[in-house]
Predict the 3D structure of the following.
Amino acid sequence: MNDALLDLNMFEDSYEKCLKCNACVASCPVTGATLDFGGPKHMGPELKRLIDNQQVIDDKRIEYCTLCGNCDLSCPEDVHISTLTTYAKAIHTEKHGSSFRDFVLSNAELVGKMASAFAPVTNTAMKMKPMRQVMETVMRIPKERKFPKYKFKNFNRSFANKVHGSKRKVAYFVGCYAMYNAPEVAESFVKVMNFNGIEVVKPRQKCCGVPMLANGRLKQARKNAAFNIDSLLEYTRKGYDVVTTCTSCGLALKKEYLSIDGSDKAKELAAHVYDADEYLRMLKDNGELNTHLAPMKQKVGYHAPCHMRAQGMGTPAMDILELIPGFNIYDLGAGCCGQCGTFGFKKEKYGISMKLGRTMAESVKNLDADYTVTECGMCKNQLDQLTDKEVRHPMQILAESYERAKQLQTV
Amino acid sequence: MYDVVVIGQGLSGMLAAIWARGEGKRTAMIMSGAGKIMQSTGVLDLIPGSRGTLDEWMKQYPFHSENKADVLQAVAKFKALTRELGYPYNGDVREPVPVVTGSGHIKETALYPDTVTPVPDRGHAVVVGFQELPDFQPLFISKNLQKERPLMTVDAIRIPLGEDSQRVLTQLDAARLLDQKEVRARCLRRISGQLADKGISQADFFVFPSSLGNEAWAQTLKQFSEGLGARVTEAPGMPPNATAIRLNDRLKLKAIRSGVRLYADTTVTGADIEKNHIRSVRVRMANRATDVAGRQFVLATGGILGGGLEVTPDGIRETALHLNTDGDGRPMNPPDNLFLAGASGGRQLTRHGIVGGVYSLVSSYASVFGLRKTVAGGMAK
Ligand SMILES: Cc1cc2nc3c(=O)[nH]c(=O)nc-3n(C[C@H](O)[C@H](O)[C@H](O)COP(=O)(O)OP(=O)(O)OC[C@H]3O[C@@H](n4cnc5c(N)ncnc54)[C@H](O)[C@@H]3O)c2cc1C
């Protein structure tokens, strides 16, 4: 066994508590959609039991795990199932290497930088049939799959730190999606904070690592985690709160870094991280929130991303949006969207992705709201592919309501 | 700030949350993981492990003995909910019925879904297993059933579901396969073939694993009972039982869609209690803790089995709120805005190991609506 694999035979003994009750199996979206996956119980605690202090086992079936974390939410015994499957993925990639496609897909940040630099070209190219045919043949990326657009004027280009010494200070972990694909989300977030008199800075940051973990690139994810932890702690130690608008980044900073990095610094950071809506809800509970929101008479469907639900914080997006007068928001209760980050971009997973997505699409159709709201850019990608409703981030709606209120005031 | 904070996501917690939300309360549900309903059989017993009657149940469980009408009202409310959820429950708590389990033994239960049919005393029964499903052994089951029902003729057959799989199938996997019409038709053909081979001309009762369809349970039930010209039943045993998962998933979805806020994969590790009144509970997630404030709280943490009570050398410890408990784990002098639902009420409720679904539903109902005006409790009143 080479050192790299030995390193992956990590210390994690929560598997010993597994009673094989199958709650995780019954809750796993992918297990429900295909018999090709080994299922979370087998690929998590059982596999770990087989390899603990033994030769590592490389099991290809782990490729079907999306790291959505629904297994963790269901486990009555607090077995860290998704941590175990994260390692099973790392073992698989370590033994087999990444395909070029998976390497590219898991490099959201690098791709974001490049695609954004050539944005008009990239976006047009991604719509060209011959181009997509080549991508399908060479990279096994299905030609029917929509991709998020890239913006030339990304958030990196448009945003400059301005420090004016507010009481609360926010260090914004932007994430690749709001940075390169949806700077309008990042800009809305900054506006919302400014409406609350809170200054926002953008610390140096790298991709949170979630796409890397999902593709078994544990070592690279660890490097990114270490970078982000150090960079963000510089701010939290000066009294900043770290806030995310992407629920996968949020989950990484709050939870995943504790298992893949596990240092005291990771623990220290986790205690200071908030999801954007969670942060606003906290402000509200403390009587600090600007509730000067203009009415928006709308019926809206909310899609809860798996990585939002995994943060164990209720549904702060709905709590906050419900403060807008006239705003009616309903939880679609659709479960997993099926995009699952990079998973849904892979040819051999596309069928499963669509099967999962159809349940969500149906609930969108049944509710028949004015539009859909979700925090996750990848869930949005799937919603864009499978429904004809517009999809917005909670921060965009809030920013609009605040702005309208301001206009009403000045009129 | 919530109106109602429910701790626990078992049958008790989900019912309390759904009903509180139905009363217009802003409701949160906080849980470490799924409740035992996911491991259960999905049928709701009066006194598990015993053939007790409603009168005995009323004596054994801490409700006032005159409350029978209220108990029936709680049961009616539960049945109405299951109808609304598209998975109706039948039965009468005054007349428990015999059902067959996944080991072929017979137990009495009070409330059961359409996919479960009470076992007759006589006639010809056939136990049908699926080759790919190790958790349901038809021969073993048929022999146990034969012992329990000496006047019955019991046969066993085994058919392949015939789908390739990269994992060992569970009853839920089989149920999902049977959601497909073609798979059902194929199964029916194979059953007929086996019956013909064994020279069984007319059987009137078919016992299946807890797998008669997941989403399409109604179609499966219809196609099988019509195709076989007989009554069919699921015999729940090893989890996951589709009988239970259907109820669990529907209750959870109902809670979510009606706006209950879920704090999943978290643990309640304490409470801010002042003058015997809970202001907030401390909720832990990974390395973070937040306070969740509320007006009313429901403790539905499942007792010893569910993790809400822990047996220590010094007695029984209440794990979520750190309440003082008596020798059986029942909280003593609980806070005035706390309601106990399900197995969290101490060991005297779980003398037979589990509390039983009927107590879970009645105590959840009581925590939301109150049983009698003279009885303390009932946040809706
Ligand atoms: C194998 C099995 C078979 C069964 N079969 C039957 C049957 O045939 N008929 C029948 O009537 N009943 C059956 N039951 C019993 C039934 O399903 C439940 O056990 C019973 O209804 C009790 O439910 P509950 O909601 O009170 O608790 P549980 O279902 O145990 O739920 C407890 C909940 O509390 C949460 N929790 C605990 N502590 C904390 C904390 N500190 N912070 C946050 N959350 C916490 C847990 O995560 C869980 O969500 C069976 C149970 C099992 C295990």
Observations:
- The longest strand of chain A covers residues 169-173.
- Residues 298-410 of chain A form a domain with the Rossmann fold fold (CATH 3.40.50).
- Chain A has 23 helices and eight strands.
- The two ends of chain A are 73 Å apart (CA to CA).
